[in-house]
Amino acid sequence: MTEITERLDLRGEVCPYPDVKSKRKVKKMKSGEVLEIIIDYPLSAERVPETMESMGHEVLSAEKTGTSEWVIRVKVK
What we know:
Layout: E1 6-9, H1 17-27, E2 34-39, H2 42-54, E3 58-66, E4 69-75
Parallel strand pairs: 1-2
Antiparallel strand pairs: 2-4, 3-4
């Protein structure tokens, strides 16, 4: 299991906020750190990993953990 450096709980947020807030957060982090993002909006569960990869970060996992909740782990480039 990868050690989580930062956690971003975006439950209750709808597009585009999870995407925007995730981008802002990784920009403040150092290379090699791991961000865990918790989302409960289905469209964001698809968009956030795509955005992180397009920014050059490594998506370690994107898994559904509840009926409408996803946990995305991103390793900062």
